[in-house]
Design goal:
This protein is of the alpha+beta class. It has one domain (11-203): Alpha-Beta Complex (Peptide Deformylase), CATH 3.90.45. It has helices spanning 22-26, 28-43, 75-80, 146-159, 176-182, 188-206; strands at 48-50, 60-65, 86-98, 106-111, 118-124, 127-133, 139-145, 174-175. Strand 6 (127-133) and strand 7 (139-145) form a beta hairpin.
């Protein structure tokens, strides 16, 4: 069974999700939800899914970034993003701490299964630490940088009622089709120039 992924505008995406107790996590229905979230993520496919995206206001995120997903990205960009395969991770009640300098944010395109069909450049911290539980209630700590850190920030945002469109560079917002045509295999240098040009356009608009 594949779950329906709710889209931007659904109130489920704007609520702060609820913490789970270990007793709640151990319930068969919660474990089934986790299994269905994994199946749904792999069906799309995507690299991350949060419970609010399937209409459940619970602090659960699923992450998996398979090697095969990297084939659509240039080798140069994979290196720039520090993107490496991430095995399946289920994190319950995640608490995220930024561990990279505040002035060292990185700018790359993101998409979202709940803003289906679009992408935009989003600033994110370079490195983070996340503490929480695994699906069985055992404590875990994840330290991540690069693309993995970006995925974690994106998914934890969902638990707090936030979407990437809230912090995106608005002039970079585009359809997936346009992104695939112009940016999927682009070099990091091309992206830097595009963002700089976009920032200049924004500044000109503000000065009018």
């Amino acid at each position: 069974m594949i779950l329906k992924i709710v889209q931007a505008g659904d109130t489920a995406l704007r609520k702060k999700a609820k913490q789970l107790t270990r007793a709640q996590l151990a319930k068969p229905e919660t474990q089934q939800l986790i299994d269905l979230m994994i199946a749904t993520l792999r069906d799309r496919p995507g690299v991350g899914l949060a419970a609010p995206q399937v209409g459940e206001s619970l602090r659960i995120i699923i992450i998996e970034d398979k090697t095969e997903y990297h084939e659509k990205v240039s080798d140069e960009m994979l290196i720039a993003q520090s993107r490496k395969p991430v095995p399946l991770k289920v994190i319950v009640n995640p608490v995220l701490t930024i561990i990279s300098p505040a002035d060292k944010s990185e700018l790359y395109f993101e998409g979202c299964l709940s803003v289906d069909g679009y992408a935009a450049v989003v600033p994110r911290a370079r490195a983070v630490k996340v503490t929480g539980w695994d699906r069985h209630g055992k404590p875990l700590t994840v330290t991540a940088d690069g693309w993995f850190a970006r995925i974690l920030q994106h998914e934890v945002d969902h638990l707090n009622g936030d979407l990437y469109i809230d912090t995106m560079i608005s002039r970079t917002f585009m359809t997936d089709k346009q992104y695939s045509k112009d940016w999927a295999k682009a070099s990091p240098d091309k992206l830097v120039k595009f963002i700089a040009k976009t920032a200049l356009s924004d500044k000109k608009e503000q000065n009018k």
